[in-house]
Design brief:
The protein has 13 helices and 13 strands. It is an alpha/beta fold and 438 residues long. The chain is globular, with a radius of gyration of 22 Å.
Amino acid sequence: MRLFVILLGLIAFTGHAFGQATKPNVVMIVSDDQGWGDYSFMGHKNIKTPHLDKLASQSLVYKRGYVTSSLCCPSLAALLTGKYPHETKITGNEPPIPTGKPMVQRYKDPEFLAQVNRVNGFMANHPRIPAELGKAGYNSFQTGKWWAGNFKTGGFTHGMSHGDQAIGGRHGDEGLNIGRKGLQPIFDFIESSKGKPFFLWYAPMLPHTPHNPPEKYLAKYKDKTPSIHLARYWAMCEWFDETCGELLGHLDQKGLAENTLVIYVTDNGWIQQEGNPQYRADSKQSPYDGGLRTPIMLRHPGKIKPRMNETPVSSIDIAPTIYKFCNLPVPGGLKGVDLLDEKAVKERDAVVGACFLHNAIDIEKPEKNLTWRWCVSNDWKLIVPNPATAKGGIKIPGNARLELYKISSDPLEEKNLAEANPEIVKSLSLKLDGWWKP
């Protein structure tokens, strides 16, 4: 009898008979079109994000995280593959618009669809987190924003996005209901995965447009700004936060939080215009922090010590971090570092990335679609335009120029210091060229 009790205790402690530790679940929360400062814990004076604030208090938070590119499709592909857009050739949201045909008719054009399918196929040419975890016995579930056709392209075992272009298969289709119409598909997946570790991709189209928050959220912000557009966007951020609370609360309720690695990141930034529903030009699709910067959070109770970190890191680091945390081999060719390896994070001397056209000029040649490359090193950030495609600095249209900012004292990138600091420009340019020189 005593031996039986000891064995039961061992199983309870390890989560598995014979003393084998249970593999950790992995949950990725990816917000869609949200500014890096648009959270209470990041200092926003109006937006309320109590659930993400709580997550931040329990997490290792990199306050200066950067995505690889400021557009959703290449950014999301980099998250799942651990490779830069020019490495996967997934650089824009879509192929070239068919010549002589209206954009609204593009998904009825056979040549355009053939290129869409070609780009979707690029994903399967690279290691993908769900596929690699699947080799170790994980179930995986895709929800929300998704550009690669059917969820199976990403290596997921389960998913919401069918990718059938004949019935609206674009950027997530049915998956875009997640969050906006509840989380029941996620709850059902978690329930069905009993006995198996799981990977969950929660990437709702929130706070992404349409900015149509429920009135209970909008009412909180109408009197805080004369701009209804700002009020709607702020309300969308709180709506998204509420859905994160539902998800995290479900993990608690099911007793899964203690063995789940939760990772938070956004796909790209957003700065809301006050006079209309559109984003400002120095945010999404731009090389500025308004489009590239994001908090990156990692939580696993008992294994990851909660703290704030100001060292610049990249979303390219998330894939190798997951592999190492799950005790899996890191696929060859990944250039990111383990975000839980403090020494490796500190020793890296620069975070780099590139921006590309929304619609590619040539889906086979990433350099043809390049608009800017950028490099962040300590306090400095260099932006290098590609004269062949960029129309110049967004703040001075038509003037393709080098831009250098001291982010610590100029977080809004308002004072270009390139001419006054040629040696810094040269040093950062060499780092960029050493990474990728088109």
